[in-house]
Amino acid sequence: MLQPATTSQDAHLPQLTLTRNPGVDLDMNWVRSVQANTSAIERRAATLPARRSVKKDYQAAWLLKAITCIDLTTLSGDDTAARVRRLCAKARHPVSAQVLAALDMQGITTGAVCVYHEMVETAVAALQGSGIPVAAVSTGFPAGLSPFDLRIEEIRRSVAAGASEIDIVISRRHVLEGNWQALYDEMREMRSACGDAHVKAILATGELGTLRNVARASLICMMGGADFIKTSTGKESVNATLPVSLTMIRAIRDYHAATGIHIGYKPAGGISKAKDAITYLALIKEELGARWLQPDLFRFGASSLLGDIERQLEHHVTGNYSAAHRHPMG
Ligand SMILES: O=C[C@H](O)COP(=O)(O)O
After folding, report:
1. What does the UniProt keyword field contain (predicted)?
2. What's the ipTM?
3. Residue 305 C-alpha to ligand 1 middle, in angstroms?
4. 210-213-218 Cα angle (round to 5)
5. Catalytic positions, written as ranges
6. CA-wise closest residue to 311 among 303, 320, 302
7. Atom 6 in ligand 1: residue holding the nearest Cα
8. pLDDT by residue (tens digit) across 149-167?
């Protein structure tokens, strides 16, 4: 049986230790040595949802842990300041006071709020005093095909507007063309433009073709200074999956073994069910260890996961399921 992931002592504000990845020199021998055994990865990934059964208080503890690791996200063309302010209010109080009190918990917030550049100032103002960071998707999100100098400028503007985390998108063509030097150089320049803001590199894995490409792109981004690697924008036709996650977190494990540097992981896109969140947390604990279950090293990129988690917690406390429309935000 899995042990509870959250206690009333460790579930307060996001525990950001603000360690950074300085990056390392590009090592092409290391990159070329990286392989991915797709069938073995898929077999291992297929066993994960089936054998996880976490019930009652243990389940509630894991779900509270999951909330603290959510980058609560809105990335829609029709985003408004009012919607972003509602999202921020939800990030401050993701679970009703009644449910929290029944669980003997307090001070739970989401890990961050994630928005487009235009919404950064609104989110920063709405989260003032909460300690909740604002993450901005940047660099011509989601395709990353705007002129390079404009992508760099976008990062600078988001940081100036108050974003303390920047989610960049990589140029998928550099991976598909095997142009690893270009990917490394791009990552280094983007990291440099971020200054003190943490940088998450979105690989858009659904567009990279093979798991070997995913593994190599993960490694290059870490060498180039990414603090986190993130699966997807949420806009690809295939977003976060367990095989991709296994591939990326093993790349994180290898990078840590070789350099001693901790890199965070953010699966994003299409994660909307509480039981899937628990599967991801269990995978992280098994492959990387409990240190990676803190919000400075693990986040879910999700726009609707919180709503399902709330429903499950409410059921745990009251014995009844509320209608999904009662949890419209998050
Ligand atoms: O980075 C976060 C994703 O865009 C969220 O995707 P989602 O709307 O499928 O949860």
Report:
1. Lyase, Schiff base
2. 0.97
3. 9
4. 130
5. 167, 230, 266
6. 320
7. 269
8. 999 999 999 999 999 999 9
> How would residue 145 be classed by pLDDT, with cut points 50, 70 and 90?
very high
Whether 178 is covered by a domain: the verdict is yes
Helix H, strand E, coil C: the string for 91-139 is HHCCCCHHHHHHCCCCCCCCCEEEEEHHHHHHHHHHCCCCCCCEEEECC
Q: Is 124 in the pocket of ligand 1 (CB under 6 A)?
A: no
Write the CATH number for 138.
Answer: 3.20.20.70
Number of domain units in the chain: 1
CA distances from 167 to 11, 125, 157 (A): 25, 20, 13
The secondary structure element, H or E, covering residue 199 is strand 198-202
Name 165's bridge partners. 135, 198
Strand pairing category for 112-116 and 70-73:
parallel
Pairing of strands 134-137, 264-266: unpaired
Cα torsion for 310, 316, 320, 322, to the nearest 10°? 0
Closest by CA to 281, choosing from 20, 36, 43, 54, is: 54
Residue owning the nearest CA to atom 2 of ligand 1: 301
For the segment 275-291, the average pLDDT, to the nearest whole number, is 96
Residue 219 domain flag: yes
